[in-house]
Amino acid sequence: MDANCFRLNKSSALCSTHLNPIKRKPEHPCVIAMLRRPSDDITGEPRKTNAYNDNLFDRLAINHLSKSVQAATGLGNNKSGYESLVEAATVAKQKFDPVQQQEVIIQALHRAFPKPILSFIKTLLPPSKLSREYFAAFTTLFFAWLVGPSEVRESEVNGRREKNVVYITKCRFLEETNCVGMCINLCKMPSQSFMKDSLGMPVNMVPNFDDMSCEMIFGQDPPASTDDPALKQPCYKLCQHGWNKSVSHIPYAAKAHTHQP
Q: Fewer Cβ atoms within 10 Å of its own Cβ: the N or the C terminal residue of the chain?
């Protein structure tokens, strides 16, 4: 798929690969989060600093998710480890438009996590302080292989403090892909939808494209696409996946659903 960057106004450059036209009306927002605006050097290439030594569990989990994404896209690859997962995600970005990318990842997540297990968790853990804190703790303990090191933090929910926030120090997926569009369409948006629809748990993922950190706020509905600060961020200037910076800037509405092979 050709990369298409465009400009909605004189000060904000956007990529068609990280916008979603679907609006989601918050049903029961719990806390408020703000996305810190990146410094001026967001257009530069972020430096990769983290090194990972994946154990057996990590490698098995990475391979399982990678194979699920490959099955959803219909295109395999011969790479191994996290490189295989990144390659599968890159193929999804290249083959599908933004809306289709999100749908493919949701399909992959359903392949990776059996429906009976998801239904059981949804029934066992309805929205509550306990479930919000459980999801935060579980994510920190068992998903470091996907997003990198993280920690549980507190936020105020309905006037009281809860440990319902996961703070990811530097997202492994964003660090490996170095691509704002892939973060939005292949992680943030589909993960939010999957968690809400399959597990009954609202979550707002708030990436910081300056330092590549991210907050996952369990119990908070994400803002509508038109109001989400993350969807208003420009691509990295030296994106590793070849965004075409020379194309004309055109309104998103005219190109959002256009699939270009």
A: C
pTM above 0.85, yes or no: no
Q: Read off the DSSP letter of residue 186.
A: I
Sheet holding 213-218, edge to edge: 150-157, 160-168, 213-218, 203-208
**H or E stretch including 61?**
helix 56-73
Single-letter amino acid code for the residue at 176: E
Q: How far is Cα 106 from Cα 235, in angstroms, rounded to an integer? A: 23
Does the pLDDT value for residue 2 go beyond 80?
no
d(C-alpha 113, C-alpha 61), whole Å:
11
Residues 8-45: tens digit of each pLDDT: 444 444 444 444 444 444 444 444 444 444 444 454 55
Give per-residue pLDDT as tens, 58-112. Answer: 999 999 999 999 999 999 999 999 999 999 999 999 999 999 999 999 999 999 9
- What residues contact 97, with CB distance under 8 A and at least 6 apart? 1, 16, 256, 257, 258, 259, 260
In 3D, which of 127, 102, 92, 117 has the Cα closest to residue 24? 102
Mean of the per-residue pLDDT values of the chain:
81
